[in-house]
User: Which sequence fits this backbone?
């Protein structure tokens, strides 16, 4: 994962076949969406009155990324971070743009994964880099086209807020999924603590660690944005970022609660297994304690000594049966007192 | 749970049939309470000498909420938060009003729940939004009517304090309920660690997590209010908010203590089950250790070898009984030394 | 526990029969102690050269408390806190006096309890409110009478220090009691882990939680006093409060150490029970493993088949004994290798 | 490990045979590498336009270290720390140079170890001290020779950054190794919890503690460098150090995640062993519960009483078989209901 | 332990027979060491050019301590702390001297103890109070006599540093002792988890708590010294105190690492005991599962029914042996599949 500073390399796997670049230029009155084929044509908008949103899907074609970035004079270290899908969420303020790294969580084949998303927020443009095709930004595009006033009238900072908000709110779906998984688990653990459950709990625990690790720095990052006094984010937009921050706090708290619940499940599982074992041992002990003395008595009268007076008594056999019944009743009485039933 | 910014939606369930709006206008000398039917008539009081308290019960009718808020020119994001029953407690200072989100805890059918309560504190009005009909504010209304001097003479900030205080103090009832639940539990765990108890402990643990999650941000929120230098809260009222803050600290400490106690119960349960198992195993081992050798001896003299001299001895049978008694006494001696009795 | 602001109510139980009020007026040269019968006569001293210490034992007579407080123009919220025995330790600076809440720990019938003690420190008076008669302040009174220079020459702030110091130092006795309780416990746990011990450990744990909860805010409170720049506490007295602060840190550290020790005891208990169980199981397994095969062999030759050649051999019986002895020796060898002895 | 201040002693073991000193003097246009034989010739470069990098491999020859340090007038305490291989990573700003202590992690014979590396960053020189020959700096040297512009054009601070970056990035290899070790472990623990695994988990835990202890202070150290306002580090280079800081945060987070995972493994192991035990106990109990009563019945009819009517019945033998089969079926039914199969 | 302010009392035990006082006056050129018999002669040095080090061994003679302190006009509270061997490490700046409390750790009869050491650092003197005779300061005295330049030429602050350093560095010996104790323990725990080991682990844990409690405040104390801007400590000496601070951080980190290791041992022990139990249970279950059915079969043919056809078959006996062998082989096969071997 180590990269010598200055060489651009993709850290992570190629997730889409072809890099797709969409550009939307909009202002209060007009909106224009186009697929970009020639990378060299991507330049910052010339007039201040238009906001440009350039969305890049697929980051494996390093040359494309490098070309776009150079057109916007993005620092080489930032370019490295765009390509480093292992990089943790952060925000960095540079001379005349802001660099934001985010993670979008998703389930794929029952496994929790995260997509590396980078945003570059300039004075009148936003560039977004996505690893995969699944379009979390589609609703944003739709809202732009539908001409929702607030979004169309505001600047690039509001667009950045809408994009960050889309990503943070997406994590609620993951939390709902997890909440459902946690639901029925408790009863199952108490009444039927199977080994499979153990692994299930363990994998849930792993997902919590993953979630926490992805969301915590997002929270930190937005907090840092709030505290920064960058000119790129207008005061009126700050209120909205504060709202996103509230959401990330809510997400973090839910994750912490889930962690506590899952930790509780593990304890519950252990206790439940102990209980089960107790029940098994009780059964064994009751059976053994009742029959071992009886078998001993039967053994006694199975001995072949020549002189054993009881054997010759007329009611010896029935007497011994009676004695055994008394022993069993006595045992039951003992068990009852020890609350084993 | 994700909401596109700008669209108002209720997050949570509808808790009452009909939205009820009560308005109380009061000052030192007069008080006037009325049910409001026409939402559009709700406006801030015109004179500075009167304080208006508008209480809205039921927040599912989005249009009603929106109308009221717009009359008081409340920010759309605040309106969203009023409707988002999942939102955590917080305080937000806006231009000329303060927005407070609170949670009121209550038990319903043995389950701990929380109601989402929002307050808007303006220069001479307070608007309160409640989810449910159960009226935690009834005593406040009564005190207003009874003409208690302090309350009637002070401004909207003191009214806000009284409302927040009512909610925070309500949580003491929950704590008392929990304290009672915890009481008898210890003995039960030590003397009869049944599986049902385990689940009971686990659900108590869950309630603690719930409580903590609801109360912690309330504490934080009041702390923020104390530190804020808003003009809405007079210096003389600040002393009272400090008092509420003290209460929230007290509540948090009690919750932490309860958490420690419940955590201790889980350990106690596990140890108790281990002890029980020990006792069972001891019983089994004593029985087996005594009778297994005896049964073996009986087995020996049940063999059918032609030449077994002991079988022909006159006192063979009684001798063997004697030997067995010696073995049993020896065993008892061993067990005694191992402190198994 | 919820109290509507403004109504004085005792929260807690009545601990003494009758409220007793003692007043000591002293300065460098004179000292005058008297029992106060008429509450309305209690007023702040008129000359600056005298310090008055008014000690109130018993706080259940609300009217008495209210009268005294009103004579010294104490804020109603402070009066509430004096009566709220559940209130946590704190210090509050008001216009011209300081309000201090403390807890004095004591054992009563083997149970750890805390007494609610409030101090009001004015420019030339100290009022102290005690719940119970047990007089932790007796040595202070004695020192005043004995004319110890430092105390008699200093102002009310030094008196307050001496009172706070008396209460903090009292907690050392509790710690010594606990230390003694912890002492012999370890050996008992390792060698004889009885269920009673478990409950004993659990109740010690509870006492630690109680102690911690009482002492922590006292520490915080004295720290706050040190940081405050109140005119009521002279610079020369501050050194003494710093000393008390050091003591509270010491107390807290000892409590933390005890907590660690008790937590260790719980682990030790569990491990010890496991060990015990191991020993029991080993005994059972050794007995069963030795005798089960032997009993089987005896069973074989107890069968009644007509054709069993061994039964007719002359040395069959002794041969079988020999074989059994070999089996037992072999078993012993196996157990030895598994280190079961 | 205690050293009287002022005496230089190597704390740690000698790791190489002979001390090797390499010197590279470079600027934008020229580069010159040489092996230094005569220690006294090592002096700071005279012109400001050249940067000198002096790399010392092997620190056991105290005299050599002392000579070099004295030529650069390094403080005696810094010299001590260069020789103290136990010293934790730190950064220290002195009059005209900066002293950096780092740890490089490596695996040797399956064991995690750390190498003590010290850097001295002067205005136009960097001195690096390595314990071992394994050359983590080789790629840096190569890049210098290949004339990579950025590195050759920048000052000594950029060289220091490149060296620190090389060491931090090296730790990713260790993390990858650990990730691989953790991978297959989970399945093994659940399905075959052997005692060896326990020790394996324990040693992994130890490695985590080791890693954390080595990396945490490196993070702290770089953070301190970022906050320092030393003239030695140019503003443009600071961006690069910020990047290294990001890496150390990433490394720390990965270590924390691994710690959580390994802690989870220990819990998993315990639960897994409990499960295994449960299964064993069930087998035993099923066997015993089925056969103990049957053996008892067989014992009954093995008794030698003279009067036992059943023995003489024609179908007594087959009847008893039938009864036994009924008992077994009944037992199976019970076990089924208890979900033991 | 409670002490009324103003009365000097020794808290702790008398550790030496007789109080010994040594005085060393030194400067760059001369050094003079003498045993002091007459306490009243101990006064601060008159000239600024000489540094006096007064070392007091044994603090049980309160009058002696008081006399010395009064000669140097030491505050009564400081005198109390010198005599309070329970007092935690701290530093306190007073008007013209600094008061330092330290703990020196040592093993006595296999038990970890701490000695209370107090230093008073004046402008040109240092007074040190030791509880016991064992001389940790001997090497310092020797270095003074040997005329080591730095020490002889520097002022009292450097002497104080050397003394503090001697005490901190002494703790490395304790750590080395502990490291040795921890070494072989792991293997023992995994392969032979005896109850004695449990107590051994527990006592190690106790020592960690003790160590941590002694060293943590020393760290805090030196940190406070570094941050203080006292005139008593020269800027050039501050570098040395920073070095001691680094050492205390190192010591604390090692203690934390040891704590983690010992905590891991406890877990390891529990798991190891579980494993052992598993093995025992497996042995029991294998024996019982094999022989119980066989014994049952033997029991069947030991019955005395008149009509049992198998008994009369010629190969009945051998047939039954064959059947038993088949059963045993089948069992082995089952156990193999369950991986019990």
Assistant:
């Amino acid at each position: 994962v180590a990269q010598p500073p200055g060489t651009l390399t993709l850290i992570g796997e190629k997730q889409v076949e072809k890099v797709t670049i969409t550009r939307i230029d909009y202002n209060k009155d007009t909106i224009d969406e186009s697929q970009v084929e020639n990378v060299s044509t991507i330049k910052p908008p010339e007039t201040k009155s238009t906001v440009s949103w350039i969305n890049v899907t697929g980051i494996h074609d390093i040359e494309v990324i490098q070309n776009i970035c150079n057109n916007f004079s993005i620092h080489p270290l930032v370019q490295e971070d765009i390509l480093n899908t292992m990089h943790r969420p952060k925000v960095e303020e540079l001379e005349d743009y802001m660099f934001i790294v985010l993670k979008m969580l998703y389930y794929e084949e029952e496994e929790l994964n995260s997509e590396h998303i980078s945003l570059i927020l300039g004075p009148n443009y936003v560039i977004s880099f996505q690893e995969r095709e699944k379009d979390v930004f589609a609703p944003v595009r739709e809202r732009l086209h539908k001409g929702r006033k607030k979004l169309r009238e505001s600047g690039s900072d509001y667009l950045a807020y809408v994009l960050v908000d889309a990503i943070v709110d997406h994590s609620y779906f993951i939390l709902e999924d997890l909440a459902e998984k946690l639901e029925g688990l408790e009863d199952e653990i108490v009444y039927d603590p199977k080994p499979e459950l153990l692994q299930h709990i363990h994998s849930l625990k792993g997902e919590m660690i993953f979630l926490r690790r992805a969301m915590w720095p997002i929270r930190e990052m937005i907090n840092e944005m709030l505290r920064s006094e960058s000119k790129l984010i207008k005061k009126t937009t700050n209120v909205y970022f504060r709202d996103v921050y509230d959401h990330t706090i809510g997400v973090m708290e839910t994750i912490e609660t889930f962690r506590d619940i899952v930790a509780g499940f593990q304890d519950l599982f252990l206790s439940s297994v102990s209980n089960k074992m107790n029940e098994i041992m009780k059964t064994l002990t009751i059976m053994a304690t009742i029959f071992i003395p009886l078998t001993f008595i039967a053994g006694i009268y199975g001995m072949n000594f020549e002189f054993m007076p009881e054997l010759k008594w007329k009611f010896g056999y029935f007497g011994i049966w009676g004695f055994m019944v008394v022993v069993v009743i006595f045992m039951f009485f003992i068990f009852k007192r020890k609350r084993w039933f």
